[in-house]
Amino acid sequence: MRNLILRQSSASVKDTMKIKNSTLAILLALTITSIALPARAQTDMDKVSVSVARLLEQGHYSRQSLNADISKRLFERYLADLDPNRLFFIEPDVEEFRLKYESSLDQNILSGNLDPAREIFARYKERVEARAAKNLKLADKKYDFKSERTVALDRKESPWPKDAAEADQLWADRIEAELLEESLNEHATDAPPKVIARRQNQILRNVNDLDDEAIVAGFLSALARTYDPHTTYMSPSELESFRIEMEKSLEGVGAVLSSEDGYTKVREIVPGGPADLQGNLRVSDRIVAVAQGEKEFEDIVDMRLDKVVQKIRGKRGTIVRLQVIPANVVDASKREVIAIRRDKVELKDQKAKAELLDMKGQDGRNVKIGWVEVPSFYANSDEGVSTAGDVLSLINRLKKEDAEGLVIDLRRDGGGSLDEAIKLTGLFIPKGPVVLSKDSNGKVSVSNDPDPSLAYNGPIVVLMNRLSASASEIFAAALQDYGVAVIVGDERSFGKGTVQTMLDIGRFMPIFSLGAADAGALKLTINKYYRVRGGSTQLEGVRSDIIIPSLTDNPEIGEGALPNALPYDEVAPQRIETDPMMASMLPELQNRSAARVASDPEFSYILEDMTRLRQRIEENTVSLNLAKRKSERDADTARKEARISDRKERGPAFEVTAYELTLENVEKPELVQVAFDRDKKKGYDMEVEEAKDEEPKDPAPDAVRNEALRIAGDLIEVRAASKTASIQKDTPVVQ
To answer: pLDDT at position 461, please?
Structure first.
């Protein structure tokens, strides 16, 4: 039985649900055996391409035929995958291939002819080889860095260089910018010309390392992603590496990495993993060099991602040092060295956990609030663990400790098991529908909570951001629709409302002698999900009732930023009973929060950084002037030091007594008191941690967490007042 993947990250195959029999029947009914083989000689990968194409046509949610429209999108996607910054191909290359293949790639694939993909790649390889030779000479030139010119940071939307001369100038500027950046690097691995030379040679090695299987796999992956960003093809070798990685996914440093514009980018920090516990590595940091223990750093810019992963992985207990460009620095020459001890991430570190927080409320009295962190929606029947069961244990203890309200923290929760999302929702709502799903035939199914009992019916705040995806969005949407929780955080969540299944291609090729391991796999989108009010979580996500400013609230993060995302749509809403009190309380809660945010210095910092970050994205340039770059760096350093000084002068935002509550101590008579501000590593701010040779500095407070707590305090107070003033006519209504 295959698995459905309900998670933002494609690497989270362990947090899955079993595929429904009806959908499986559709997939098994695919008429792959009726495909007629062309007369021309084919490689195994050519044959695989036919099966991949038919599975996409007949199994993908959209049921879209492989036609001229797909062909055009594939042409653009394949070129973008090969040359994302439009620096190697020149306009004549692109127009030549456009005339030959843009409208016919579909027919070539369906006939098992992948020669167009090979031809395009051969030209790309030719351009890379010629460019590397020129760039090595450019790296040896002398520059005074007094130019007033600028270089575009992102050329994804720029036109292709019109000819070789324009490409030469673009690369001359780029190499000059890289040399300037390395000259400002406080943790340089070598002299700038040598660093750039290594990068160019690494690009060459990366291209030369690609065999026919890898070339075709890249092309088929581009094809799959023309259907939607979560559908992708994995070659036989990639599939094997994927399976090995899943088995060892809890070992290493605990970071999900991606490749972007030549950099290795941190896409996700695994909760409870070594990187998470160490605390300095953050989402969107770019890793530029890796060192084993105290050995010298090795530059990894433009290195293939699988090779980078191999260098970061290692034996448990060993040290790996990462040199990173922090996510939100203005000056890309600013580097941070982060040492992480490799380890195995124990499952207990990824389970739900909680804190009992005793704080002074707005009315002056002490109030106890339970803070429940849900890192993912997990289920392991063999070990008898599950998100819903673990959260229930934590909530029962929090109730014994007289917690008057709950905050459920779903920040960075990429999803997981749909069943667990439904069960967790059931702890807070009466029995009824939780989520709807629609298959490619338009059939809508309803998933219900069958249990009328409630584990908790007090004030609830759900904290999300744009990194909260999939199952976490289903849970938050249901609580919002039933009117039992206030959703706070970024403007909206990630917006992944689709489900994928993993298919071994070989099983759909009965007339060939290829086994599943020989043909690779297709991760295929087959369903969409909808909230009980009828709207999809796809693309739209879950909108917060109260928006708290944060640097993750960036339109560059989320489903809408991914190419070929499936559209938002709606189905018929369900009739549910909802408490009208929440809607009546929201204006007061929103006004109180807005007033605090407007007067809180930490949010003024966040808003300032958000503005600077957006300006940088809009300007999309970096200066080639050394004096200007130094001035920008000095201003950045001065701004950070001023903030640190201001925080010390202001002192703590408010006093909170915190008690740690884990699944290990949930039954113990006494809870352990901990420092409330000990875990600031999960805050998303522009503060760059100091290098190891600098004096330690106080971390920036997690302003978002602090405000979520204050909102919870408001909710407790306003809800109590509303109940006191309410009369018996406040009965549930049917929608």
So the answer is: 98
The per-residue pLDDT for range 531-554, each reduced to its tens digit, is: 999 999 999 999 999 999 999 999
Is residue 2 within 8 A of residue 23, CB to CB? The reply is: no
Q: Is the pLDDT of residue 682 over 70?
A: no
Contacts of 75-81 with C-beta under 8 Å, sequence gap 24+, read 75/101, 75/102, 75/105, 77/222, 77/223, 77/225, 77/226, 77/563, 77/564, 78/117, 78/120, 78/218, 78/219, 78/222, 79/120, 80/156, 81/218, 81/221, 81/222
* Cβ proximity of 52 and 121 under 8 Å: no
**Cα(440)–Cα(602) distance, integer angstroms:** 47
- Of 159, 149, 39, 36, the C-alpha closest to 89 is 159
Active-site amino acid positions? 470, 481, 496
| Gap between the Cα atoms of 517 and 580, Å rounded | 55
Q: Determine the Cα–Cα distance for residues 387 and 421; give it in Å rounded to an integer.
A: 8
Query: pLDDT tens digit string along 453-464?
Result: 999 999 999 999
If one counts every other C-beta atom within 10 angstroms of the C-beta of residue 394, the result is: 26
| DSSP assignments along 5-67, one per residue | E-BSSTT-TTSEEEPPHHHHHHHHT--GGGPPPPSS---HHHHHHHHHHHHHHHHSTT---S-
Q: In 559-669, which ranges are E strands?
A: 577-578, 621-625, 656-661
Between residues 48 and 168, which one has the greater pLDDT?
Answer: 168
Domains and CATH numbers, the chain: 66-210+622-644 (no CATH), 251-344 (2.30.42.10), 352-498+529-602+708-730 (3.90.226.10)
Report the SS3 class of residue 170: helix
Q: Of 213, 293, 223, 215, whose CA–CA distance to 72 is shortest?
A: 223
User: Measuring CA to CA, how many Å separate 55 from each of 13, 231, 499, 643?
Assistant: 20, 11, 16, 55
Widest distance between CA atoms in the chain: 83
Q: Which of 589-598, 680-689, 690-699 shows the lowest mean pLDDT across its residues?
A: 680-689
The 3-state secondary structure of 58-96 reads HHCCCCCCCCHHHHHHHHHHHHHHHCCCCCCCCHHHHHH
**pLDDT of amino acid 512:** 47
